[in-house]
Sequence to fold (556 residues):
Amino acid sequence: MRHLWPLCALLCSFWQSSWAAEAASARFGWFQYQGEDAVFAVPLKVGHYRNPVLAGFFPDPSITRKGDDFYLVNSSFSYLPGLPILHSKDLVNWQLIGHALTRPSQFEFTGAGLSRGIYAPTLRYHQGTFYLIGTVVDQGGNFILTATDPAGPWSDPIWLPEVGGIDPDLFFDEDGKVYISHNDAPPGEPLYEGHRAIWLWQFDPVAKKVNPESKRLLVNGGVDIRQQPIWIEGPHLYKHNGWYYLLCAEGGTADQHSAVIFRSRSLSEPFVPARQNPILTQRDLAPDRASPITTAGHADFIQLDDGSWWAVFLATRAYQQRYSNLGRETYLLPVHWQDGWPQILAQGLAIPYQLASPASLKPQPVTVPQTGNFVWRDEFAAAALDLNWNWLRQFDQSWLQLKDGALHLRAKADRLESSGQPAFIGRRLQHLRFTASTALQLPAVGQSAGLVLLQNELHHYYIGARRTASGAEVFLEQAKGAQATQLLAEQLPAGPQELQLKVTGAGAELSFYYQLPGQGWQAFGPVQDGTVLSTQVAGGFVGSTLGLYSRLEDKP
Fold:
């Protein structure tokens, strides 16, 4: 049952007064998502794998291993359950097995924007325990979680009040000492916008505290402070052949993003940057190239038993050369060593969509893929919500019920534009070309229900149905940098109590449809602007999700 999100502990009052008036809930019969990108349709060569290995909103990957098992975590920002944990046997096929944040005693994000919450975590395994260190922005700072099973449960947070900034890393040295490196303000006044530094602390895992006298500077500014590098962050420490290596992200999260490497013989000595930095970027490629992968950076390394090294990192698939609705995805590339320095990808080379798989690892396909072209359907027949669903900010699920092969959402006053918790569940958008559809019963008077494409509070689409004084109607709303406005509405004929809704996407084009029983799909309005859901328009750090929503209407 690890592939399901257990609701029992969260819904202790679920079956009582909350659902006394069952007719007041919106009833969804099923949800289906289908993705069909052209780059995934190219036949896979024998012995090769596809990039990205995790499609859609899987940013800031960090990887660890326990024996023959590999585990990976990603940032989740203000989505819950938070910090998705994925498992693989071959580095290529990944199965979502759980989340590290599963209860309110850990974190909740009421009032937080979608791009706040949980920032870049690091996942490590050491002597029988999994450690997860990360940042909760605006609500406590840096923390550590622990678990003996990466699928959970994970502990409540160990807070690190002395450790400021973001993106902490946990490093277990060969002598038994443990260190935390992280991004924070530079020493003295910043010299320019984006001037940051990487700092190091010694950490006592028994006392669960850092040594307050151990703080020292590792990197000031970046590879070459004379060039005013920006946003040095995402540090990871490793030790290899007697050298300490420090891998960082540099250049910000947009088109100038990169991964850079430093090394030192001792943690008490200066870290020297590699001459070939950056060791990963796509910023020097022609912007008009076909099927571009952009914003590459923020990497983590893993070594296999055969001695080979591999890197997971984030990057973004773009349409029209610059827009992306998917958010930052997880990619995999081999690491090549030369003259004592690692290189992920030589400058000027494009990230490949296909590459030879790790030779020493036997392919292990998974039951629910997270990349390639696939169909994902939820009939809501299980006793618990599938792990691929997420919601916003709070663990309260009193407004959600799985019953009689359907999903029931009780309408709430919280809207998608709010910083509260709307009655919304969503799954990641993982393809540039996709179709999503659902079947629902018309909600009660004073409510609406339907399909949502959500990028953030002020950038989304909502195709829904509601009853009015004159009958029932289907409508479409768009939020484009402000509160949502209605684009169109159409009266439905009297009689039918059910309908289906659908949205299709192809890059910058979104098309919406509805279907009544016994009829075909009806196009609903003109093609809409898909760039509304792109990071380049909406800003922030999240990717788009799509799913199901119900709300109270101001006017019945």
